[in-house]
Design goal:
The structure is a homodimer of 437-residue chains.
Chain A (H helix, E strand, L loop, with lengths): L4 E2 L12 E14 L2 E7 L4 E7 L5 H8 L6 E10 L7 E12 L16 H6 L1 H4 L3 H22 L4 E2 L5 E2 L11 E4 L3 E5 L4 H11 L1 E9 L12 E10 L3 H22 L1 H6 L4 H5 L7 E3 H10 L12 H8 L6 E4 L12 E2 L2 E5 L1 E5 L6 E7 L4 H10 L8 H8 L5 E7 H9 L20
Parallel strand pairs in A: 1-2, 4-6, 7-11, 13-14
Antiparallel strand pairs in A: 2-3, 2-5, 3-4, 5-6, 8-10, 9-10, 11-12, 12-19, 14-17, 15-16, 17-18, 18-19
Chain lengths: 437, 437
Amino acid sequence: MSDYRRITIASAGAHAGEPVEIAGWLYNLRKSGKIIFPLLRDGSGILQGVCVKSQVPEQVFEDLKNLTQESSVIVRGKCRAEQRAPGGFEMDVESVQIVQRVPEDTPYPITPKDHGTEFLFDHRHLHLRSRRQHAVLKIRHEIIKAIRDYFDSNGFTLVDCPIFTPAACEGTTTLFEVNYFDEEKVYLTQSGQLYNEATAMAFGKTYCFGPTFRAEKSKTRRHLTEFWMVEPEMAYADLEDVKRVAEELIVFMTGRVLENRQTELATLERDVSKLEAIKGPFPRISYDDAVKILQGKGSEIQWGGDFGGADETLLSEEFDRPVMVDRYPSEVKAFYFQPDPNRPEVALGVDVIASEGYGEIIGGGQRIHDYDLLLRRIQEHHLPPEAFNWYLDLRRFGSVPHGGFGMGVERAVAWMCGLEHIRETIAFPRMLYRTRP
Amino acid sequence: MSDYRRITIASAGAHAGEPVEIAGWLYNLRKSGKIIFPLLRDGSGILQGVCVKSQVPEQVFEDLKNLTQESSVIVRGKCRAEQRAPGGFEMDVESVQIVQRVPEDTPYPITPKDHGTEFLFDHRHLHLRSRRQHAVLKIRHEIIKAIRDYFDSNGFTLVDCPIFTPAACEGTTTLFEVNYFDEEKVYLTQSGQLYNEATAMAFGKTYCFGPTFRAEKSKTRRHLTEFWMVEPEMAYADLEDVKRVAEELIVFMTGRVLENRQTELATLERDVSKLEAIKGPFPRISYDDAVKILQGKGSEIQWGGDFGGADETLLSEEFDRPVMVDRYPSEVKAFYFQPDPNRPEVALGVDVIASEGYGEIIGGGQRIHDYDLLLRRIQEHHLPPEAFNWYLDLRRFGSVPHGGFGMGVERAVAWMCGLEHIRETIAFPRMLYRTRP
């Protein structure tokens, strides 16, 4: 068997006409009398095989004909171009080696028929093998790589922030508590931002990129209890710098997905024209204007209120690309936002609302750099100043204007893929009622 | 002031002779009569300025002369080559703009004098600004980027595993427990491996890369409670594939550090000849041989026992590069290791022991792919089979030989940097008695 070179399906085109073998799984099998068409997957792609009864030993034909879905199998033969086949190539099968045959009496549980969502996520360890889920996670990988490449090639240093944190960044009601050696309580991070501000003063431009946690009791299509977030932070930067980097990042990320993941976008039947429209410059409007637009479209939002998901969707209808909304009322923003010097009642913060109703994809802004003002805000928000003493140190020792933002990876994946529900954007989603498998 | 172009210190060489400004912090100040030498840092590097009293307005000279450590300042002037200066360039200062001056009566707490470890880690948010810590974290970034680049360019798909897990991978005594909505207990992941085995069957070659947690009550220089781990897993792979990828990864990572982080290695006074020796092929020995070597060197290890840190150090003395030790007694390995078909009492596992006494840097091997054998092992280890039902599914539906490994990032950083203690390898270390800042 050593005459057959082991290749991946993704590279089949480069080996047309050569004797090759593919080690994978039987994805599907179509029979047409004396010809069978096994659909093989190996993780890199899907390849259609053709096995003609008269051209192979009888045992080979019988083995393949009776093979069960998701059995592991090594298939040998030669590939050739075939426009009608998925991927553009087909294999003329010469022999098969069954590695493990799934028995008929305990068949693979996920069949081509429709299954309920609960069933599929109970079998998530197998569900990931299906074409659609595979495509989503390949795009997720592309997005994560694009994000890292963007920051790495623009002078940012990766400095990951701790998961175990003594205090909350935003409120305490949505914190997960961890029993730390029976001696003290620690919490799972909700954001690395406060730490990022420390590292930005050491490295100039930094980003952290890891899992974050919110114990939100909401069961919406936009919420996970465990999700990944990238958060850049820049010293000597203002709101305009934050907007520029946010826009560049989204444009770069979208470009990479369009460039490298056409196959997966096609599998998901994504309308790529919507992604192709995501180009700079993004429209930039103020919160004031956004409120007027929303009121004009029938929303009951009043100046001073925060946008809900429905408002974000309404707003996104006005634009073919993401829209940047800045200068929110300080009241609805976290304590650390720098007030606008010309209008102290609004904060130098910006939200980027994704197109097509995918909601807030980025939130960030400029942070308070003045010691006295920050201390006053901590007190006004009834936060314990001693817990923020180290954070206040950053304003005692070489304080500078600085800012940054956070982008949730799962929302970005849902948007790029055009998904209804965020649970498909991560391999093993964790939600209010889901912690398995 | 708009005549001065804002540059980073790292790019100063490309702008020699031009009017430029650097936005940073005063790292140190040396005075010599009518000349002062401010040492500036901006996160990208350190630059020495030269300010001659007779050549600048009196106020500029006075401002700079009285500037306090870690005050934030924008310095303007022209750079020129100067071999004796750190980085090879010096700036002739023409003007300064103080952004925030650290007051004399509350000076920056970390001075050039020696501080105790506790003090430094209590001030970790500032400690990261010092040259040595800065160098370590730049090398950490380089290592993480190298790891990701290696896997991304070798056909691996990034599929991150959940942090919240219902069951333990290795023992239950070192698990951190999380209160999940008062309804059930979940645990923080210790390894993504079991999940990786599911994703490898979907993607062929995968890796996860995230934080992992161990509630170990040990206070050694090698233990953190929160640390980052990369774990690749490959379908249709055996022990030899695992060894090959482990070796390639270490060689690639070391090469990148040597190529891109010479400045930081010099700051750390790292003996780079030790890193240059890390080339393939690594010596490969069996556990049996390792035991004999250790006994010959005076260790009390007996066949059947696991190596302790002292044994690993002894063993590493025999080689100038990492050594791969394979086929450990099954007894000391986790339940999922594939036994050697020729000698069932040993497992097809491999540990890579770093050079210079940095201990086990990689552990991995081939997993059991046979359903009956895996079920028997789960029972022998008194693990609840129902919790592993999904994991057993991977042997019911298209099981194939497969394997992978885990590499701890912090140990890799300690090794590359030549550090005594692992606490310096991460921005905000979490240990038995350390959860702040």
